[in-house]
Design the sequence.
């Protein structure tokens, strides 16, 4: 939800101010991005937001208008039309700001430096190509550049479920684990089946009812309340209550509260009390649980369809499912749970996942997997294409004029090729197939027209490569012309310059050899409701201007609040002897009180709409009188602690001087160095006690002569002199001289070491006795 006032208010701030700023508070952006203004889905959705003025948004490039919103932004009285994609981007950026603020907690790094760089945005799986491109443009408009992937919400839920179980080795490659995920949020109901094996997640099926959610249960109860109100007061009313925007919101809020009351097991009744509902009439009634379930029965009957379709598409039965996980706030409705158990014919629904955050957690995990900033074990995620896409063309020699290029359930990103025989420029069209079967209006059938500039008039094969990227958006990958041309190298004579004499003669003129030549062709793509780079840049500049205006308003408001808080905070402190009263002279307190009262009157009269600079100046004027008094209190409170710390250091250093003289540990310290420490201790001690005597004779409302800062400076001075002496390391002992080693005799030529005779000793050469034989 985004509210436009003197500044933008997003999320909870917009919710709290919705009733007073109904016309400029926008919600439901996700369900409107990428839709034409006259799209039946858009017309149905816009009825949920009475009071908001929707308008066609015309692009500079022309084409079908998309959806815009008329707002009053800032101080301007003029209405401005902003595209719904831009508003959706504002909501996403607000989420990034929340994440950055959370990351900055407990650190010195400002939140602005921790804004997310890598994004995975979860989207409904029923989003068409135009809706995906619309959300992509919204991200770029608000400065979100690092979108790594648009991920289906059901796939994000499955990833959040499976990746941690995979780490725990709970999956078996021989026996795949099939899990059904049922997600019912505020506005849509999705049933998906995923198969898990070690290291891989495969989406087998995803079916949804995009117009069934918790708000439909709220509306059913709201219509019941409105009907009872009309029956009671009849002709006394000035109109239908559901046609009055503020009355509509009151009834819808009461209906939601009644729904939540009746959801837990055992609750039989919900009281509904609405004061001053309309035309000064109050209304009170009770809704019994039996009535509630009867009212909601048509909605409950719609739960079975997507479940049955998902099982059929995955070729499974409920008995083949390992678990049925339910997520989304609306799965907490008691009658919804009971109906799901009945449809699936199972005993329990699994609630091991966080019903509100499972999608966000899955998107965060996917971001970590894709981001180069994290090192994560590979995990294969196979998304499922929600709608079949066909490519069609006109003319040519082909037997068919279209082909299904991307089947439903096909994983992406993927590149497919179609080869046509064409001469000259031509085009191919991509569109959704069987749109009615998948709940899409006929106007949403067209996806893109690809124009290929073929420079030749002769018909040649042209390969058109079309890609469905990681976001599920169709893009042109490349176009290539393939020609068969004569190979001049093949016509050259054999080696020796003459043909072999015994070569067999060819009948008639021999066929010349040919080779394949590939030429890349220029191509372009045009898409309905597309955003050009110039349009994105234009609205990016508007977003920057809005952000700057928001910053000024917020900073001004913060400064005004700071001034107001100081005025009220100091009122009691100055007059109380238990706080600041004893630290200010009567003259100072009187002057401050006079200035404070004058400032308070100014703040609520002439200064109500002042600028940040003026508030800062006024605060500085008041603090010039209050700060000296507060400083005296701070000095009085902190002085004993820093004096005690200094005294402790003096005692420690003095004791060291006395003990070190007789200690072998400090025998390397000279007497001059010890005297240096003793002298500095005596100097600092004398200064401290002199100042303490002076301070003792002063009153609390006088500026101190012994300040905390001066004591800390003296403490540092003492440490700078004494610590180097005390921590002086002992000199290293000199290494002992080793006696010279005997010279090692060099080996002789025959490999034996020569004996070196000792001086004064004769050696005898020993000879072996030999036996002579005849």
Sequence:
């Amino acid at each position: 939800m985004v509210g436009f006032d003197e500044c933008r208010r997003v999320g909870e701030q917009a919710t709290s101010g919705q009733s007073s700023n109904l016309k400029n508070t926008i919600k439901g952006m996700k369900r409107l991005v990428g839709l034409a203004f006259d799209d039946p889905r858009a017309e149905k959705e816009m009825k949920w937001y009475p009071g908001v003025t929707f308008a066609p948004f015309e692009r500079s490039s022309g084409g079908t208008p998309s959806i815009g919103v008329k707002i009053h932004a800032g101080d301007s009285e003029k209405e401005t039309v902003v595209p719904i994609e831009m508003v959706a981007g504002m909501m996403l950026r607000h989420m990034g700001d929340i994440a950055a603020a959370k990351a900055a907690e407990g650190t010195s790094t400002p939140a602005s430096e921790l804004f997310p760089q890598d994004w995975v945005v979860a989207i409904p799986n029923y989003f068409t190509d135009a809706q995906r491109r619309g959300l992509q443009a919204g991200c770029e408009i608000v400065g979100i550049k690092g979108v790594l992937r648009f991920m289906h919400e059901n796939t994000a839920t499955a990833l959040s479920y499976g990746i941690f179980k995979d780490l725990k080795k709970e999956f078996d490659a021989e026996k795949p684990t099939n899990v059904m995920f049922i997600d019912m949020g505020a506005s849509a109901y999705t049933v998906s089946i995923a198969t898990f094996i070690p290291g891989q997640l495969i989406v087998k099926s995803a079916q949804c009812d995009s117009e069934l959610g918790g708000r439909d249960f709220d509306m059913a109860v709201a219509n019941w309340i409105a009907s009872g109100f009309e029956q009671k007061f009849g002709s006394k009313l000035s109109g239908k209550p559901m046609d009055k925007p503020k009355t509509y919101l009151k009834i819808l809020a009461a209906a939601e509260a009644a729904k939540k009351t009746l959801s837990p097991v055992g609750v039989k009744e919900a009281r509904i009390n609405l004061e001053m509902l309309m035309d000064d009439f109050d209304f009170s009634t009770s809704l019994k649980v039996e009535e509630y379930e009867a009212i909601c029965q048509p909605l409950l009957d719609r739960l079975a369809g997507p479940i049955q379709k998902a099982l059929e598409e995955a070729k499974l039965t409920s008995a083949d499912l390992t678990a049925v996980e339910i997520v989304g706030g609306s799965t907490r409705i008691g009658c919804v749970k009971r109906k799901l158990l009945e449809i699936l014919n199972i005993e329990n629904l699994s609630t091991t996942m966080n019903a509100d955050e499972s999608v966000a957690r899955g998107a965060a995990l996917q971001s970590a997997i894709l981001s180069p900033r994290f090192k994560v074990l590979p995990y294969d995620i196979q998304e499922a294409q929600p709608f079949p896409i066909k490519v069609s063309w006109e003319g040519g020699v082909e037997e068919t004029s279209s082909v299904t290029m991307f089947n439903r359930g096909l994983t992406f990103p993927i590149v497919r090729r179609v080869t046509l025989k064409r001469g000259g420029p031509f085009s191919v069209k991509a569109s959704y197939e069987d749109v009615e079967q998948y709940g899409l209006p006929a106007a949403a059938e067209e996806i893109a027209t690809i124009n290929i500039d073929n420079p030749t008039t002769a018909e040649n094969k042209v390969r058109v490569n079309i890609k469905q990227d990681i976001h599920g958006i169709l893009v042109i990958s490349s176009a290539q012309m393939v020609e068969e041309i004569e190979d001049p190298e093949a016509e050259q004579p054999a080696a020796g310059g003459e043909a072999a004499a015994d070569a067999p003669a060819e009948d008639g003129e021999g066929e010349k050899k040919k080779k394949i030549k590939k030429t890349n062709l220029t191509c372009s793509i045009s898409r309905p409701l597309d955003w050009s780079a110039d349009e994105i840049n234009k609205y990016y500049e508007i977003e920057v201007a809005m952000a700057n205006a928001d910053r000024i308003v917020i900073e001004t408001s913060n400064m005004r609040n700071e001034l107001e808080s100081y005025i009220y905070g100091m009122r009691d402190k100055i007059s109380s002897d238990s706080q600041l009263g004893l630290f200010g002279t009567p003259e100072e307190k009187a002057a401050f009180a006079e200035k404070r009262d004058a400032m308070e009157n100014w703040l609520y009269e002439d200064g109500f709409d002042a600028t940040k600079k003026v508030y800062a100046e006024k605060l500085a004027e008041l603090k010039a009188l209050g700060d000296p008094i507060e400083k005296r209190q701070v000095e009085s409170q902190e002085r004993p602690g820093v004096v005690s710390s200094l005294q402790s250091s003096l005692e420690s250093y003095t004791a060291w001087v006395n003990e070190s003289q007789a200690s072998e540990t400090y025998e390397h310290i000279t007497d001059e160095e010890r005297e240096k420490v003793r002298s500095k201790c005596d100097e600092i001690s004398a200064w401290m006690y002199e100042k303490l005597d002076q301070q003792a004779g002063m009153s609390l409302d006088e500026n101190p002569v012994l300040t905390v800062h001066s004591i800390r400076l003296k403490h540092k001075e003492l440490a700078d002199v004494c610590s180097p002496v005390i921590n002086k390391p002992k000199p290293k002992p000199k290494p002992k001289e080793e006696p010279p080693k005997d010279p090692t005799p060099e080996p002789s030529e025959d490999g034996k070491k020569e004996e070196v005779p000792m001086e004064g000793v004769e050696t005898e050469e020993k000879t072996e006795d030999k036996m002579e034989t005849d």
User: Anything to note?
Assistant: The first strand starts at residue 2 and ends at 4. DSSP finds 16 helices and 24 strands in the chain. The first helix runs from residue 12 to 16.
